[in-house]
User: Which sequence fits this backbone?
């Protein structure tokens, strides 16, 4: 089993609230990712990091922000949640090198009402 | 046209059937290839990496054709528990740097029926 954890698993929150989705991994991986996925739809990369103090925006524009102050921690923040942010957010990490697989957390299912 | 393309399906097959999924990629700088499995409302999990010589893991066989930029996954003697979405993933170099990027296909949905 992968040692990558996301909290909370489920979150229902009101419009306008600030939220932080947590992602932690204990594998020492430098590379971490946040994906957004709606039910039955494809994975969209919204943020990634190649190491501490490195963050980049992904392919899908997102109003969320991320930080990478520690190797093991890659939180995602929404300053003001809106119903359009309702989705599943999946965090992943992988080691450097050829052929290394990505390990996913169990995801956070966010509903903004 | 997407960089990694898969037939979305759904594939509906009876138990015991053999089913094959195809995936094509357009960027010749692609270096590593994977098949992931994603169950409904769950996170993707690695099913198998795909090696140039082809590889097999039990009922699953993966093949890579670099010349045609094509990857396949064959499932033999399919089980009910094989029902899931199968994601083709390609890793390639980003620009001229040393960084690599994972490119995900949309996935192929498989339903194995009793």
Assistant:
């Amino acid at each position: 089993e992968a040692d990558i954890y996301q909290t909370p698993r489920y979150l229902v929150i009101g419009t306008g609230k600030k939220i932080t989705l947590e992602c932690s991994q204990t594998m020492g991986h430098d590379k971490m990712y946040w994906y957004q996925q709606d039910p039955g739809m494809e994975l969209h990369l919204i943020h990634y990091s190649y190491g501490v103090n490195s963050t980049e925006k992904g392919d899908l524009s997102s109003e969320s922000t991320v930080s990478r102050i520690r190797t093991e921690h890659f939180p995602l923040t929404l300053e003001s949640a809106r119903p359009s942010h309702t989705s599943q957010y999946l965090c992943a990490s992988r080691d450097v090198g050829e052929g290394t697989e990505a390990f996913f957390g169990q995801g956070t299912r966010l509903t903004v009402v | 046209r997407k960089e990694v393309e898969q037939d979305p399906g759904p594939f509906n097959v009876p138990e015991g059937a053999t089913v094959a999924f195809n995936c094509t990629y357009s960027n010749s700088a692609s270096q590593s290839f994977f098949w992931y499995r994603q169950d409904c409302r769950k996170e993707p999990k690695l099913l198998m990496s795909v090696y140039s010589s082809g590889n097999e893991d039990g009922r699953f066989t993966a093949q890579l054709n670099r010349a045609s930029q094509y990857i396949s996954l064959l499932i033999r003697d399919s089980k009910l528990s094989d029902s899931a979405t199968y994601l083709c993933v390609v890793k390639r170099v980003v620009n001229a740097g040393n960084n690599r990027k994972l490119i995900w296909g949309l996935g192929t949905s498989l339903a194995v029926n009793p």
Summary: The two ends of chain A are 34 Å apart (CA to CA). Residues 15 and 102 of chain A are 32 Å apart (CA to CA).
